[in-house]
Here is the input.
Amino acid sequence: MITITRFAPSPTGYLHLGHAASALFSAKQAGPDGRFLLRIEDIDQTRCRPEYLDAIYEDLAWLGLEWEQPVRVQSDHFADYQAVLDRLSDMELLYPCFCTRKDIQAEIERIGNAPHGPDGALYPGTCRHCSPSEREDRIAAGESYALRLDMAAAIKRVGRELTWFDRAVGKQIATPEIFGDVVLARKDTPTSYHLSVTHDDDLQGITLVTRGEDLFFASHLHRLLQELLGYDVPEYHHHGLLTGPDGKRFAKRDKSKTLRAMREEGLAPEDVIKLADQF
Here is the structure.
């Protein structure tokens, strides 16, 4: 079986050295006989910009990378993600959450010692207990809401232990409950990273998901979604993150380390590739 990998940046800023390292790593894992795909993850339409999208193509081509066409641009496929949400809704695994961030914080403070997950304090489940009629009335009244996954119901539906394999650390037992009732869609963003990436990896036949170790825990949740939706399970390789002299990982706000800035300083592609080749 050939290896199919992908690099999936978001056009919310210019690519930096860490992005270059991740893209090059993914392409290398595909190998000469595999397939390397580029996917644009631009579901956050409030932060994504056309100029950053153009820069992604320019920067990656400058590095010498080649990818298959057409590129999947997630904002062109919101209907696909709605169909997935509809499937989960039909399983009675989603519920509307009307809580604001302020509401959630107040409830967490009231409870005290709230359990925490990879993204902070877990949602306390306030709206999970709303009756169907209350939900219908609040939606009809025009209240804004997000769609959350009923984690306990989802795990119960699966009914067995789930595992996944990471090439860096071996077999893993999925513990999606660490995320609690995670948000899968919002009014202003009709899908989430977790939902869209899981769907697209299956749709595109990705056999090896390569991404930074900062997303390691997300794989626990993605494994649950794969099982619920009948998707194939790829292998994973969560690579290390490049950091600057201060020990902090590179970020898009570090303009001096963007590929565009490095190119303007006179660095050649091979110079950047050498700097990026650290994991």
About this structure: The chain has a mean pLDDT of 95.
